[in-house]
Design brief:
The protein is of the alpha/beta class. The protein has one domain (7-206): HUPs (Rossmann fold). The protein has helices at 15-27, 43-53, 99-113, 136-148, 163-173, 195-206, and strands at residues 7-10, 31-37, 63-66, 118-120, 153-155. Helix 2 links the parallel strand 2 (31-37) and strand 3. Helix 1 crosses helix 5 (163-173). The chain is globular and about 50 Å long.
């Protein structure tokens, strides 16, 4: 059965993807939010957040795919949660190989199966991303490949944005910033020290905000 939506959005309920969801609504682009459970320790928190933070008009369209077996047994602290009271977590402990390749491939397959021709992703010009599949060159090559061998176009409207620029747009769009969740180290309460938290807090403080 073909879908009447025009796009599919990779939704992680962090500041970036939530802002993109509100942007798509403003632009009048009907979309399906897609949440991927890859075994991350905060999956339950993220999914509950998605059901609360997404624009009301698309919450009932939220789709979840579970691929947690792919990373079963991984030592990444994104999978195996550390006890932050007794264990130190370094940036490299949060490294996750091929995650973006997996996400974009799954989203593209889902989109094409539903007759949707565009996948939106909120990847930005991050200063802390270490994954090999986070570069502009990678995204360009993958997008070209998917377009050549299928009907799906990868769109990243925020690709050249800084986190501050996303935060500015979030304020403009009325995004409930304090409800979004993007901590890498804690599954329930933002730690304030992981790369995602640090970048987020810096952006909000630069706007004069205290929201976490």
């Amino acid at each position: 059965m073909r879908n009447h939506k025009e796009a599919l959005l990779l939704c992680s309920v962090g500041l970036d993807s939530t802002t993109l969801a509100f942007w798509l609504v403003r632009e009048g682009i009907p979309f399906v939010p897609l949440f991927i459970d890859y075994g991350q320790h905060c999956a339950a928190t993220e999914l509950a957040t998605a059901e609360a933070v997404l624009p009301l008009s698309v919450r009932s369209d939220l789709r979840t795919i579970n691929v947690s077996d792919v990373y079963k047994g991984s030592s990444s602290r994104l999978i195996s949660e550390a006890d932050l009271w007794s264990e130190a977590v370094e940036d490299n402990d949060l490294y996750f190989p091929y995650r973006n390749i997996l996400f974009l491939s799954i989203a593209s397959a889902c989109a094409q199966a539903q007759g949707i021709n565009a996948v939106y992703s909120a990847f930005i010009n991050s200063n802390h991303a270490k994954e090999i599949d986070c570069s502009a060159e990678f995204f360009h090559r993958l997008g070209t490949l998917l377009a050549q061998y299928g009907s799906v176009e990868i769109r990243m409207p925020f690709r050249d944005f800084s986190k501050r620029r996303v935060a500015e747009l979030a304020v403009e769009l009325g995004v409930p910033i304090g409800t979004t969740y993007s901590c890498q180290a804690s599954s329930c309460i933002p730690c304030g020290a992981c790369p995602n938290c640090v970048e987020r807090l810096a952006a909000l403080r630069s706007l004069g905000g205290n929201d976490v």
